[in-house]
Amino acid sequence: MHDINTIEGALAGEGLRIGIVAARFNDFIVDSLLRGAVDALARHGVARGGIEVVRVPGAWEVPLALEAAAKSGRFDALVALGAVIRGATPHFEYVAGECVRGAGQVERSHGVPVGFGVLTVDSIEQAIERAGTKAGNKGAEAALSALEMANLLRRLAP
Ligand code: INI
């Protein structure tokens, strides 16, 4: 494959502006995702002044805030953080489904990458595992994906 031109985004954050939309619902989980995201961005060169955090009530509200942030033109990439934990009612399916769909719509309709770090899990234990314990930190992973995609879009720009 060394003879094939490969286009990838670097994990380089210098000069980039990243908006993080984080739900307050299940904040004991989301705050760990947020710490992971900010730490990952800072360790890859994003200036602390290049990061802005937008707080919203829950995962349901995340897409609307992403949409407004994307429209504002202030950000090279966005990161969505939240935790939707399955309960005894279908509420989970509706909230999680709309959050995923809405985030995808925002990134494709505005051309602004959205790193998706909203956990959709069956239990609090599964959420804890993904918020900085044995399954890593999905906030950090989402932030790095957003960074990579911002740099990829720059390389693919006409
Ligand atoms: N919001 C979440 O972020 N996670 C959840 O697990 C959750 N559950 O299970 O209800 C949740 N609900 C709140 C929802 O996102 C809205 O904030 C609320 O319906 C008001 O619009």
What does this structure look like?
- This protein has 158 residues and is of the alpha/beta class.
- The protein has helices spanning 27-43, 62-72, 91-110, 124-129, 138-156, and strands spanning 18-23, 51-56, 77-85, 114-121, 131-133, 136-137.
- The protein has a four-stranded parallel β-sheet, sandwiched between helices. Strands 5-6 form a two-stranded antiparallel ribbon.
- It is globular and about 50 Å long.
- The two termini are 25 Å apart.
- Bound molecules: 5-nitro-6-ribityl-amino-2,4(1H,3H)-pyrimidinedione.
Entry keywords:
two-stranded antiparallel ribbon; globular; 158 residues; alpha/beta; four-stranded parallel sheet; 46% helix; 5 helices; binds 5-nitro-6-ribityl-amino-2,4(1H,3H)-pyrimidinedione; single chain
Task: Offer a quick outline of the entry.
The protein has helices at residues 27-43, 62-72, 91-110, 124-129, 138-156; strands spanning 18-23, 51-56, 77-85, 114-121, 131-133, 136-137. The protein is an alpha/beta fold and 158 residues long. The model has no long low-confidence stretch (mean pLDDT 96).
